Amino acid sequence: MRTPDLESLRLLVLVADLGSLGRAAERLRISQPSASRRLSTLERGLGLVLVDRTRRGSRLTLAGQVVAGHARQVLDELDRLLAGAEKLRTRREAELRVAASLTIAEYLLPAWISELRRRRPELYIGLQVTNSEHVPELVESAEADIGFIEGPRLARVMATRQVAEDRLVVVVDPGHPWARRREPLSARELSRTPLVLRESGSGTRQTLDRALYLAGCDRARPLVELGSTAAVRGAVIAGTGPSVLSELAVRGDLAEGRLVAVEVAGVDLTRELRAVWPTGRRLVGPAAELVAVARRPPHAASDPSRP
Fold this sequence. Notes:
By secondary structure, the chain is α/β, with parallel strands linked by helices. It is 46% helix and 23% strand. Strand 1 (51-54) and strand 2 form a beta hairpin. Belongs to the LysR transcriptional regulatory family. Keywords: DNA-binding, Transcription, Transcription regulation.
């Protein structure tokens, strides 16, 4: 016994409803000989005679009536499956769940989301903010459709794409001795000085530790560990000690004199900002659109003349 295909079941149900193989074939937009062959294949596969073919039309046998009843239930369930899948697809296309590291969430994502919402005003966007270490977990567990991280290291294998570049800067308050330095700091001086730092697992902390390691130095020494960029900025402005922060986060403070940038020699503090999603999953829909917005230059993202 072979499992019948759905179109053959649909043909059998139409023969039962219309009382004619020819009209059933016409409804399915196939030729009558093709319909006859399909019905014969169904009968051979089930080992049953399903239709009596006469000059006055086609009539289902008793076995055909029973099989047609079952076929009708199968087709009804299939219709429900397809309708349910369509609802899920429509709902998925109307919402986007994003996980992002703190710096990206605070200083870049608002503009990206605004641009995407301008194109798709019906789109609901939910954002979870955490450190770079935890973003991949949220994406892999399907709690988020797309993630954005700033750290150089991924704890698990994931598909990634660079969306932007950032630079870390050493900052102090104007009263700090480093604010009056004429010579750049060395990598060793930076690594030996206790700093106001983000928590372990943050992208900023990962980038700094990796840069010092590549420069042949020990990891950064924490004076204070804080859970947000805003808290670190506030502590440095208050004179707690020096720190290393994203240029995105301190640009205004540097321009207005609340903080002073200190040059460092021999340490590369640039970093890639990346989108992440599970390996093997194709990036489609609103998630793919958000990544495309993030990858465009800032002036292009706000240019209404561009598609």
